[in-house]
Amino acid sequence: MIILYTKWATNYINGCLFWNNFSGSPIPEFIGSLSKLSELALSSAQLAGPIPHQLGNLSRLQVLDLRFNNLFSSGNLDWLSYLSSLRYLDLGDCKLNKFSNWFQVLSNLRSLTTLYLGHCDLPPISTPSLLHLNYSKSLEVIDLSNNYLTNSIYPWLLNVSSNLVDHIDLGSNRLHGSIPVAFGHMASLRYLGLLSNRLREVPKFLGNMSSLKMLVLSYNELRGELSEFIQNVSSGSTKNSSLEWLYLASNEITGTIPNLGGFPSLQILSLESNRLTGTISKSVGQLFKLELLLLSGNLLRGVISEAFFSNLSSLDTLDLSDNSLTLKFSHDWTPPFKLFNIFLGSCKIGPRFPKWLQSQNQTVALDVSNAGISDIVPDWFWDLTNQLYYLNLSNNEMKGKLPDLSRKFDSYGPGIDVSSNQFEGPIPLLPPNVSSLNLSQNKFSGSISFLCSISSHLLTYLDLSNNLLSGRLPDCWFQFDSLAILNLANNSFFGEIPDSMSFLRNIRSLSLYNNSLTGGLPSFFMNGSQLTLMDLGKNGLSGEIPTWIGESLPNLVVLSLRSNKFHGNIPFQLCYLSHIQILDLSLNNISGIIPKCFHNFSAMTKEKSSNLSIISNYYYNLGLRGMLMPLIYFDKITVTWKGGQYEYKSILGLIKIIDLSSNKLGGEVPEEIMDLVGLVALNLSNNNLTGQITPRIGQLKSLDFLDLSINHFFGGIPSSLSRLRLLSVMDLSYNNFSGKIPKGTQLQRFKLLQKFMAGIPLINPKAAPVIDLINSPATLELPPDLTRLLLLVYLRNILLIRTFSNLSPCETVPAEQNSPQATMDAAVPSVPDLCSFLNAFLAA
Asked: Distances from the Cα of 260 to the Cαs of 6, 207, 287, 288, in angstroms?
């Protein structure tokens, strides 16, 4: 309830209650009786409910601010039409999607000068409704950003605007194509924001806008060369030399950076994430007022010396990351600037640690990742970290030990990434308020007891994988209730999973892969209903696979329990995992049959689909110009693929795998599995499966890898396998197949060991560089046009190879008793050397 004091009298002039918490109370009706009220500010006041129509009685009201409230779930906007004196209206972040007549109501406010309707979900304008409206001609500031507006907004906008308009923001709408030339007649326009639309072409009238100072065209699919755009802006009836902000980020702009000498007032130059090539124009270094230089994510190259920055004393943000640039500064160089934000990831800076950073004592974000630095981090550097929000030293070869950081990083919720370096020794005490921490891929050793000193509940991301860490997991996870990412893989932790992990209710990605953890799978993990990845593989966990995995973790995309000691049947409740894309239960002692209900894995029933929910995005608000520093975490998992083990990361959402190999499963393979047409890999090898391969296997058109070896399958190999045009590796060895070998199309390696097959065409002769028939007592006639064959393994086989006139024999390798004999293309030089290589490759 809103309690109003006696000051709310009829002669009250100003009412300011913004940033209060009225807990969902409505606006009192009697406010409409305050006839002399001129200002009413209720932004962020936690108000709700319909707005009383009595507010329309406030004929003297000039300022109305209702931003960030929930006031428009019902009712109408008619009361607004009666506020004839209104000059300032802010309804930002109030949902107005139900009011299709919003523009008609606003057209009655003829005194309005400032209009903020950003983030209101405004529906598009109906153009015929504009014909009989009267319009305000006094609007100076118009913010309609982040709505659903289309090109139909242009006539209304041009009618309500005048030569007085100073600011127009149409960012994040649904505009497309050309902008009306009439915009060029807005002689007073200083700010034009068109961020995140689909314009695709640069407006031709920009050169006529002599007052334009801030131009935002990022995220618009703009095409063409940058030089043409610059010429467009700087030409026209009046050359525009007053431009201060130029945002063209995340488009498809090409070419080199031209001479920018025509823009001496430029303060912000944002060209990141385009396709710019060549070197950075020297004219950029002559922009004396430049404060932000953002050129990341292009194809720029060349060497940048300290002379380039000699005139940029106003620079406070520098982003040159993700290019092919080399920064060549003298060791004792002192820059003329004090940078707040430094992003130099993937620039060549090393091998020495950049000493010029010692002068940058105001920096809040620093990224020198993948910079070729192979030095010891100097002590003075850690003294600069007190104000850092974000530190990224990853993917270098930095050495040494980390000092005690518990009294560094005084900023709120800092992010620290020193992964993929050569740091060693125990992990020191860290800032208690850290929000993300990545120490993976180093040589840290000892326990992780330091975690118990982190007590701020801010930690969302913790990656300590691929180190030399050991000991029991600490039992202080109750303080990490915000943790979303936890990766402790590839260390030497032992013992049971501690009970306090039950507090990880917001966990999305959990990897404890390749440790020595024991005991059962704790039931408290069922509290992690947001889990998308759970990798507990390669430990010593035991017991039956819990039914609650399927019942309580509905969002799982990746589940790996491989290489543990689980036993019992596969619970049918796993079939509830409709989003699952990787299911790896291999290398356990699981028995029973494969559940028929696996066809409920709906994510696997779709071809060419992907799941991006395993990509986690976090942002650090750097507090400067509203800049956000992105942190993107790609979940990763190790899977068995074509005989090897590989870690998948950035493309993890694209692959779909079922691996039940090396268990004790019996019975037949359910035909229902053939409904999983999105499967990329199916590995059922080394079990006790029986029966025939169903002809429906030809439905698995996405299949690239199929391994049914070491089972008890019998009968013929279905000809429908020839329809699997993406299949590159198939292993059917150590079964009891009979009959003919069907044609394939794209096989790169085909194994058919220890069976009797009467054969005609083995595979498509234009596709397979490797054919492995070792230990197979088969009599086969191979086609004569195996033009791409690199290796034919036929030890203890009877092969009719009379037609291979273009092939010459490899030398026998006597060192191994089972070394394969082979035949290969005679055109390959140094046949003995290549034979040795191929034999070694096969043995591996």
From this structure: 61, 15, 8, 12
